[in-house]
Amino acid sequence: MKTVNREILVSRIRPDFNGTLVAVPYKVRNIDGYLKKLSSYSGKRPTLSSDLQLMITFEQDESDFSDLQFLQKEFPNDFRVSKRNRNSHQEAASSVSKQQLQQVTGRINEQIAKCLPQSPWSEEKDEPREPGNSVSEKVCDILKKQFGASDSRFVTSGREDIDVRMLGTGRPFVVELRNCRITSPVRGLNYLETLKAVEKTINSQKDIKVNFLTRLPRDIAEKLSVGQEDKRKQYCAYCYSILPISDEQFATARSKIPLTIVQKTPVRVLKRRALLDRERTVYTMDFLKLDDHHFEVRLETQAGTYIKEFVHGDFGRTRPSLAELLGVDQGEVDILELDVEQVDLEWPPSIKQSPIKFR
């Protein structure tokens, strides 16, 4: 039920999505991909007149528990442990049936499905976006109000997909406030108490937390955007391989590090980014085998590396990929969860705080 649940959430968040594939169920699109692979192996093509029928069953339960937690939180009366199970100390169900999900489909609205991107959704769509539903807005709106600014600019050290957690000390960022009418609260040493109070206000919102708010002179703040490709980032990826992987395969892959990879602009972002070949470096890589099919890989890479594509290969657009290094076919390895553990950048920098001159 994972894919059904996720497609419902996406449809509530972005009702403006359209196109030929939107109405096609995920399992049908998936089967279409397998048919092409079957044709390449067998040399036969699918036809409705054939007497041979194949039944393809998809099983993927890694996210069932987290999906169930979401449904139990939003619909506690529909997804709760029965008295019989509680009294007999039986373990609660870890998945949801199609019938159960259908009962709440109509009640999953935009508010429940809402997620928090780093930046506002693209404004190219016809319908106006919902204001205040991004990290940058939740930070900048409060700062603009506090200091009477007419506008702001939110700059970060990179960005991730919305389903990637930012751990460690968080993502370095800087906010430029323009045409501020209120500046006395950050003059001299007043800024210490002022920014502590602002940080508390920002963190009173759900889904967001900032640390170590401070003031920076312009020349220091601009360094955040300089030399982006020289920075390093540390990741931890929870991965799954269709084929079993041995300790020897992990050792072979590890022996190839450090290495330079070439990545074409990924298929998933090609619509909004130029088609380019980018060279990136993977500096370190280590594995933790969980079972024959599941493992964690910790990576330190050059900033700007597409980690998901490095793992599964993106139909051969990333070479070499982790799938290749492990000796399995393209697309046989994929990421189930991805975390950024650290951005190799001291931020805010340790500088001698002197009075900021306001123009």
Automatic annotation (TrEMBL):
<comment type="similarity">
    <text>Belongs to the pseudouridine synthase Pus10 family.</text>
</comment>
<dbReference type="Pfam" id="PF21238">
    <property type="entry name" value="Pus10_C"/>
</dbReference>
<dbReference type="InterPro" id="IPR020103">
    <property type="entry name" value="PsdUridine_synth_cat_dom_sf"/>
</dbReference>
<dbReference type="GO" id="GO:0003723">
    <property type="term" value="F:RNA binding"/>
</dbReference>
<feature type="domain" description="Pus10-like C-terminal">
    <location>
        <begin position="104"/>
        <end position="344"/>
    </location>
</feature>
<protein>
    <recommendedName>
        <fullName>tRNA pseudouridine(55) synthase</fullName>
        <ecNumber>5.4.99.25</ecNumber>
    </recommendedName>
</protein>
<dbReference type="GO" id="GO:0031119">
    <property type="term" value="P:tRNA pseudouridine synthesis"/>
</dbReference>
<dbReference type="GO" id="GO:0160148">
    <property type="term" value="F:tRNA pseudouridine(55) synthase activity"/>
</dbReference>
<dbReference type="InterPro" id="IPR039894">
    <property type="entry name" value="Pus10-like"/>
</dbReference>
<keyword id="KW-0819">tRNA processing</keyword>
<keyword id="KW-0413">Isomerase</keyword>
<dbReference type="InterPro" id="IPR048741">
    <property type="entry name" value="Pus10-like_C"/>
</dbReference>
